[in-house]
Amino acid sequence: MNRRAFVKLAGSGIGLPLLTHFSLLARAAERIEKMHKTNAEWKRLLSPEQYNVLREEGTERPFTSPLNHETRSGLFVCVACGLPLFPSKFKFDSGTGWPSFYDMLPGHVETKTDFKLVMPRTEYHCARCNGHQGHVFDDGPAPTGLRYCNNGVALRFIPDKSDT
Question: Is the whole model's pTM more than 0.85, yes or no?
């Protein structure tokens, strides 16, 4: 879009929503600064179960996380580095035994293909510390149709101040 078209659009009343949209995209594209620690440092900071999931790409047993039952308004963050990953409004009960979300905060997770069970799956990690969170599947609810199936031990819940 050239400047003349942009000025016309802005003057037509459509400009403010469009600017807001581009502003949100710019914030979503914001780069997350990477965090690097040695395995020894991670072992000191994390419980053995957290270390297994976050650093060795393990999986916690289903139906063991108290976060499965968390229904308050708030934010789910990476337990290792505190990066916000999922607002509670994206959480839903998938019946799988792990906290599940239909969307994530843009740019806050990174994906890779996982062949550990022979068939390819999409694994996702925290964009800051590269901690393994879980897998994303295409059997979730609207509006995305996605299910971010997260290990509860890899998350910490921060309730909204109004809910405390």
Answer: no
